[in-house]
User: Fold this.
Amino acid sequence: MIYKNNTLKHWGQTIRAVLLFVVLIGVSCKEAPKNGGTVAAKEALKVADQESEQTGTPLYRTSITATDIDFIRASDTDAFKSLAYVEQGAREMPGSESGELMDPGTFVFQVNFKEGKDIEIWAHSAFGTINAAKVYADKLGGRLGKLPLYMRNKLSHVVLHKGDSNAFAEDAGGFFVLYSENMDERISTNDLEETVFHEAVHVAFDLAHAKSKEWKEAQKNDGVFITEYAQSRPEKEDLAESAIFVYTKLTHPGRLDDKVVQWMETNIPNRLVYIEDLFEKTNKK
Ligand SMILES: [Zn+2]
Assistant:
């Protein structure tokens, strides 16, 4: 009825339009899930999980930036009490852009917690003013307050630089180093709490455990690493990479997918027990 008065030309246009519509639908059905990243991404993850279960390869590339797991949430309670400016003075500031170790004008802040010792935050003079430095010291205070007490008490101070390099820890010196732009980036992906935790693990546990006979034996018996990063630096990163998973399993198990927990129990049972013991022992101190 609709086409009663249409000419042949109109029919041709209609058919072409219908064909184009069909082609477009066909393309979008194929492309949408891939680009949308939902169904196809989940399938890919499932395949990756199965593959890693079968081949004993790591579960993730890295623990913090390559996962969507919010191990420690910004809204979690913390022991932060207050932050105060102390002085401007000379401090050793490794990792500075200039390469100079000594910074004569470091802005020094002190963080107080509801329990445990105070921690100093040393912000490089390159921040320029007390207020500019304090913006970043403020971003750190509550996150330090989320650390387990034992780990926080092992920290002597934290070094803050302007810039966007990756954080690193100096276990023997009892401190770690963060960069302002990298902090903002990690905040934007809910990863700064985990970064602080990771670096604090290096400070609190590496010296006594990361190269210990028992840890190495656990690594050998498990034979598999939870992340590629841990696998690439077994004596340096495996403990810190594994610890965030085990800590979350102990404190907020619901934040880990069942599949992740099962993977840990199947693939790294010895290190799971090792780190659980470590947190349980140090929790009592
Ligand atoms: Zn590390």
Observations:
- Residues 84 and 110 are 5 Å apart (CA to CA).
- The chain has three domains: 1-36, 55-68+211-284, 80-182.
- The chain has a mean pLDDT of 85.
- The first helix runs from residue 8 to 36.
